[in-house]
């Protein structure tokens, strides 16, 4: 035995203390390590660079509705796996895994509540649920949200976050594009506003339908918004796209958005829009 081994054996080592795995958050934009509590208190926005992280329906509703008080709408029941689809996994298994991971029934959740005293029905797409993909359940939830807004005589506000249509449902997923468009037309017939807030990312068939049909189009800073991916476009047109192409700020500069609003200001901005579009509609 060497002298080094003898010394090592005489040194009392203290067992490594276990700590929680979620104590720190690494910002994907600036790579800074942020104390998780600080990150959450800042509405899941990086305090160093302002990167807006992706959040789910529960966090969004808590931030948006007065006092974090809201009533979730029942999730519409639809036929699951209508095509009996299977790739590397069965579609039903993918749905079960997504439900286990998110605690939600599908990718779009609606809730009723008030925003600075104004009644509103708000729908939130959860990118964590199979990339927020649009299928039968998302289409049914969107229609249910729009009908609830008509019933309550209040605006329907949708927060989009999606990779597009759900390939496991084939043509049935694409049929949700005209279906949601009809629901938006019914809102307009009732004289009620339809407000879209695009979050990161909003792409594919969602962008090609209800994400771009709002009476007012908002987006969070830095949100990726587009139909096809940048590499696909560059390959097709054989040109290099401009810096920041398909980001919210670029789209604002080119007339596709009305506003880019930071998350901390979003609640107040939505209340201002509702007040302007539905004057005298404050809840009693």
Give a written overview of the molecule:
It is a single chain. With 284 residues, the protein is α/β, with parallel strands linked by helices. It has two domains: 19-51, no CATH class; 52-277, Alpha-Beta Complex (2-enoyl-CoA Hydratase, Chain A, domain 1). The chain has helices spanning 3-10, 36-41, 57-64, 91-102, 136-152, 171-174, 176-189, 204-207, 230-237, 248-253, 263-277, and strands at 24-26, 33-35, 70-72, 108-115, 118-125, 156-162, 194-202, 216-219, 259-260. The strands form two sheets. The protein has a seven-stranded mixed β-sheet, sandwiched between helices. The protein has a two-stranded antiparallel ribbon with strand order 1-2. A hairpin with a 2-residue loop joins strand 4 (108-115) and strand 5. Helix 5 packs parallel to helix 7 (176-189). The protein is globular. The model has no long low-confidence stretch (mean pLDDT 92).
Topology of this protein?
Elements: H1 3-10, E1 24-26, E2 33-35, H2 36-41, H3 57-64, E3 70-72, H4 91-102, E4 108-115, E5 118-125, H5 136-152, E6 156-162, H6 171-174, H7 176-189, E7 194-202, H8 204-207, E8 216-219, H9 230-237, H10 248-253, E9 259-260, H11 263-277
Helix pairs in contact: 5-7
CATH superfamily of the largest domain: 2-enoyl-CoA Hydratase, Chain A, domain 1
- Determine the mean pLDDT: 92
Principal-axis shape = globular
**Global Rg:** 22 Å
At CATH level 3, the topology of the largest domain is 2-enoyl-CoA Hydratase, Chain A, domain 1
Count the DSSP helices: 11
Name of the top-level CATH class of the largest domain: Alpha Beta
Helix % is: 25-40%
């Amino acid at each position: 035995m060497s002298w080094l081994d003898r010394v090592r054996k005489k040194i009392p080592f203290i067992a490594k203390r276990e700590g929680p795995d979620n104590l720190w958050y690494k910002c994907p934009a600036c790579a800074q390590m942020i104390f998780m509590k600080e990150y959450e208190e800042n509405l899941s926005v990086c305090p160093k660079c302002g990167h807006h992280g992706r959040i789910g329906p529960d966090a969004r509703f808590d931030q948006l509705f007065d006092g974090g008080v809201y009533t979730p709408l029942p999730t519409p029941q639809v036929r699951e796996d209508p095509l009996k689809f299977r790739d590397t996994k069965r579609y039903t298994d993918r749905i079960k895994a997504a439900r286990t991971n998110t605690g939600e029934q599908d990718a779009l959740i609606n809730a009723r509540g008030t925003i600075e005293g104004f009644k509103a029905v708000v729908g939130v797409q959860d990118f964590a649920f199979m990339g927020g993909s649009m299928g039968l359940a998302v289409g049914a939830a969107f229609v249910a949200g729009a009908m609830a807004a008509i019933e309550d005589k209040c605006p329907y506000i949708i927060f989009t976050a999606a990779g597009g249509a759900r390939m496991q449902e084939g043509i049935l997923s694409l049929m949700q594009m005209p279906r949601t468009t009809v629901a938006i037309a019914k809102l307009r017939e009732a004289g009620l506003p339809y407000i879209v807030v695009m979050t990161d990312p909003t792409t594919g068939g969602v962008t090609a339908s209800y994400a771009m049909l709002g009476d007012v189009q908002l987006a969070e800073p830095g949100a990726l918004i587009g139909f096809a991916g940048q590499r696909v476009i560059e390959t097709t047109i054989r040109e290099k796209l401009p810096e920041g192409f398909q980001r919210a700020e670029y789209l604002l500069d080119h007339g596709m958005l009305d506003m880019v609003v930071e998350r901390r200001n979003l609640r107040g901005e939505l209340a201002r829009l509702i007040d302007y579009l539905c004057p005298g509609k404050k809840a009693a």
